[in-house]
Amino acid sequence: MKIATYNINGINGRIENLLGWLAEAKPDVVCLQELKTEDHKFPERVLLDKRYHAIWQGQKSWNGIAILSRFGDIQETRRGLDGDPDDTHSRYIEAYINGIVIGCLYLPNGNPFPGPKFDYKLKWIKRLIAHAKKLQGFGLPFALIGDYNIMPTELDTYKPEKYVENALFRPEARKLWRTLLKLGLTDAIRYLYPQERVYTFWDYLRNAFGRNAGLRLDHFLLDDTLKNRLLSAGVDKDVRGWEHSSDHAPVWIELADQTQKT
């Protein structure tokens, strides 16, 4: 089973890029972020023509998440996180697909730091932690997948000193990331590549992609059941170099069909 995440940065404006990558990579499930479109403008029919069913929560101009699946109709289990009834941002959607609970998320950027946007980011992560604890109580395999807007370690940025005051790298956010891991979740990419610099985002400015001045922002957090099924993972970096590309590249993992012996 191949699961991917891709911050598409505007699904309708980059639909050809998305379709090209789907045809090439053939993921079974995809978590998308930054749809930047209202619900009624989501390209459901185009994706169905390619045999991808979808659930989504759009938002005009900003945010928006979706889950695509080649396993047929998707059983949606949740949209949004508990803990803030006034939060209208489209940032979390969840489904039960092929025996796995998949949470697709777009965590707040939090810049500028300090300020209310950073405060909102920290509160949102705490709500995600609370939800992860609930998921653990259900006894089902689960993964929390998407654009976390967090660089967990210095290996996850090409220039750590540049980001000391950036919300993506602030110790407050990284501490909450570690709290998620302490629940028993595993960062799939770092688990397989413990010492390598792996990037998933390259800014449009200053030839960042050409210089490989990247950041790792897109993550898979897996419970123990899925960690034991993890076979491989990678970044489709070449997609970032396509014309009119998102500033993120697709990231993916492959899971064995059954739990591997440890």
TrEMBL record:
GO molecular function: DNA binding; double-stranded DNA 3'-5' DNA exonuclease activity; endonuclease activity; metal ion binding
Active site: Y106, D147 (proton donor/acceptor), H248 (proton acceptor)
One Pfam family recorded for the sequence: Exo_endo_phos
The record's free-text note on cofactor binding: Probably binds two magnesium or manganese ions per subunit.
This protein's UniProt keywords: Hydrolase, Magnesium, Manganese, Metal-binding
Keyword Methyltransferase belongs to the record: no
E.C. designation(s): 3.1.11.2
GO biological process, one term: DNA repair
Location of the Endonuclease/exonuclease/phosphatase domain: 4-248
UniProt keyword Manganese present: yes
CDD domains per the UniProt record, alphabetical: ExoIII-like_AP-endo
InterPro entries xrefs: AP_endonuc_1, AP_endonuclease_F1_BS, Endo/exonu/phosph_ase_sf, Endo/exonuclease/phosphatase, ExoIII-like
Cofactor dependence: Mg(2+); Mn(2+)
Sites annotated Transition state stabilizer: N149
Site (Interaction with DNA substrate): H248
Sites where the protein binds Mg(2+): N7, E34, D147, N149, D247, H248
Site (Important for catalytic activity): D218
Family: Belongs to the DNA repair enzymes AP/ExoA family.
Annotated NCBIfam families: exoDNase_III (TIGR00195), xth (TIGR00633)
Protein name per UniProt: Exodeoxyribonuclease III
UniProt organism field: Mucilaginibacter myungsuensis
Phylogenetic classification of the source organism: Bacteria, Pseudomonadati, Bacteroidota, Sphingobacteriia, Sphingobacteriales
